[in-house]
Amino acid sequence: MRAHLGPDPFCVTMLETLHIENIAVIRQVDLDIRAGLTVLTGETGAGKSVLIDSIQLLLGEKADRTLIRTDSDTASVTGVFTQLPKQVSELLSEQGIAPEEDGMMMIRRTVNRAGKSMIRINGQPVTRTLLLQLSPFLIDIHGQNDTQHLLNPQHFAAVLDRYASLEDEVSRYRAVYDNLVSLRREMQEISKSEAERLRTLEMLRFQVADIDAVAPKPGEDRLIAEKLLLLKNSEKIQRQTQFAYRALKGGEKGNVLMLVSRSVAALESLASLLPVAGQLGEQLKECQYQLEDISEKIYDLTDTSEPDQVAAIDKLEGRLDAIERLCRKYGSGIEEVLAFRRQAGERLEKLERADERIAELQALIEKQTAEASARAQDLTEKRAQAALSLSGAISDNLMYLDMPNVRFTVSVQPKPLSDPARLGPRGSDTVEALFSANKGEALQPVDRIASGGELSRLMLALRCADLQRTGAATVIFDEIDTGVSGKTARKIGLKMLQLADHMQVLCVTHSAQIASLADHHYRISKSETDGRTETALTLLDHEGAVEELSRILGGIHVTEAQRMAAADMIAEKEDLRSNSGS
Fold first, then answer.
1. Is the model's pTM score more than 0.70?
2. 3-state SS, residue 429
3. What is residue 15's three-state secondary structure?
4. DSSP strand E in 448-519: where?
5. Strand partners, 176
6. Nearest Cα to Cα of residue 481 among 439, 512, 448, 442
7. Intervals of the chain under pLDDT 50
């Protein structure tokens, strides 16, 4: 058991197991991840970046079919997460997804050669959108490229808001701001030049009058078409229905009903002699009633003529032409034409009462602007307070990481009241990370002046200050030790070890100074099997860790002195554990 530098932190989400199949050089890999600091090392090209790509795929990155192993049709990544936070449980509950046994969540993502991706959570298919909503609460992956993005002024406001737990307040401000934008857009449309407004009014009035002149009703075109079909075939209908009626009832010399009636009488006369004849007579009488009913309905159909057949057809065809003309101009059917009429009427009403609406909008905009400004001012004050705390925490961490002359400040500058565009989606503030690594140098934006090694330490310092309070409970550092010396790398490792007392930390590294501090050390290697390259993942014991650290220290040839140095580095780690308590 390794010592903890603080209270037992592992009551948060953790990635417990990771299973990867058929991605690039990985045929099949299983990774069991435990609490604390897990380190992954290996030679260049062994598959470390593929492992990171696989985890990003699990978190919702776009599927890339080129990742699929050459001899396979599909690739998959499966992750099991435990001790889910409230936000994840709520998102799953909204989708009707129940947790697995012991509250676990299993995410499985499969990609095929056609580029199609299937995502399942606890066996239930879900969308990539849901996966992207879940991922911020699961794993945070960081490398030097991520640092450049993270410290960019366009994104650093979100970092500060998360640190200060202001996300809900920002959301409430955003609702007011979005309403203000909508009101301004409507005002802009109404306040167009008078000539354009008059042209729009004239067009809308014509369109409304054009539709109202015809006044189509839903389904009317279908009814007209049916009636036209009857009128155009009225002669045939009349001829055939009259024949059917005469055959059933109307024939003077004989018809079906007359014969059926006589047959009924004949059978009834035999009822006393043949009981079955009486029964058949009753059945035939029922048929007689039905035939009488049918003949009456047929008689009603015999008169389909109009006083002026041609005029009636012309009138209906004219009506249908008028409706079809509207459909060509305003929609593909009567329903769409009527919807267009409603929308045009609403726009016309707004423009006709433009002066009145402008006055209403001005009052609403003033009210919304005042509310948005008040909320933005409140955000500014809270950000300023949080910026002092975050600046101090990051500066302390940077000094520990061999940057004794560093100055780091989170600048929160509200835009002036005179600026018409001072209110934005996140308030009125410009939030920047300002940095100076050397004495006498002025503070400048981090993304302009920091070197690769400085950016690595800045990002780690930020995460140490930030992730202990908010964010995902599993963080992955991908070669953030690039560009730093051995001494500084050791301190980076110690800082990650400190961070690992509050969350699950994975680190991909080429540094022996960091790798020797691992609670759990995996070696990534590749070999050839049946003419194909495959990546393997091995959990190292003490001897294996010494050998791997010796390889990192020694390069091509490993000496006994390097093995002793590696053993000493691990012993130093064990002494650190003992001194920190059990």
1. no
2. strand
3. strand
4. 474-478, 504-508
5. none
6. 512
7. 1-11, 582
